[in-house]
Specification:
- Helix 2 (about 50-60) packs antiparallel against helix 8 (about 205-214).
- By secondary structure, the protein is an alpha+beta fold.
- The protein has eight helices and nine strands.
- The chain starts with 7 loop residues before the first helix and ends with a helix.
- It has a seven-stranded mixed β-sheet, sandwiched between helices. A two-stranded antiparallel ribbon has the order 1-2.
- It has helices spanning about 10-15, 50-60, 70-80, 85-100, 140-155, 165-170, 175-185, 205-214; strands at about 20, 30-35, 40, 65, 100-110, 110-120, 125-135, 155-160, 175.
């Protein structure tokens, strides 16, 4: 199927089957499908807070929001020398957002968008796609608030796709394809809601909640 013929529904079926799309570069007109033999996941009860990240959160220097600037977050994630986010992928995730299956967690410093993460929601699974940071620890703060919101909402799986050193430092682990698909199948059996309007807790409260459960 040509990339221009793909729809949001095609992507949802792909995620339900355990695969996700990528492109070779920003200018690549095509999309290919990825099904890693080893899958990175971030346990919702295993998010790791370093001392510096705890201090950053407690300072409340960054203010979180949900779905306030979804497409801007995608564009900021793609604004790097090399990216797998091409025009068809950007269109598809914008479509997923419009039908309620893609979300962004933004962090702000004053009126400036300084960090964020976005991904896809399906059942009780959240598939993290990309994140960016324009200030120290901004993407980590965004991920901490997102993980907490997902856990409080009843989600059970956070798919990180590939394990990187950065994600490993935050508690991500790698599991086999079969183990991932078993967790995914279980997560797809329920469909918790993700509240956009619910206010976020203070950074100090977030640190206390994560520390008690990790």
């Amino acid at each position: 199927m040509r990339a221009e013929d793909l729809t949001a529904e095609h992507l949802l079926r792909a995620y339900a089957a355990g695969i996700f799309p990528m492109a070779d570069s920003r200018d690549d007109p095509d999309v290919f499908w990825v099904d890693p033999t080893e899958r990175g996941i971030l346990p919702l009860d295993g998010f790791h807070l370093s001392r510096s990240l705890k201090r950053r959160l407690r300072s409340d220097i960054y203010r979180p929001s949900l779905d306030r600037a979804f497409e801007t977050v995608i564009d900021r994630c793609a604004a790097r020398p090399e990216t797998w986010i091409n025009a068809p992928i950007r269109r598809l995730y914008a479509d997923l957002h419009r039908i309620g299956h893609a979300h962004s967690l933004e962090v702000w410093q004053g009126d400036d968008l300084v960090g964020g993460v976005y991904g896809v929601r399906l059942g009780a699974a959240f598939f993290g796609e990309s994140m960016f940071s324009a200030r120290t620890d901004a993407s980590k703060v965004a991920l901490a608030y997102l993980i907490d919101r997902l856990k409080q909402s009843g989600f059970t799986l956070f798919d990180a796709q590939f394990l990187t050193d950065h994600l490993a430092s935050l508690g991500a682990v790698e599991i086999s394809r079969d183990a991932y698909r078993a967790r995914l199948a279980k997560a797809l059996q329920s469909a918790p809601s993700l509240s956009v309007s619910e206010p976020f807790s203070s950074g100090a409260s977030l640190v206390q909640r994560i520390t008690q459960t990790s």
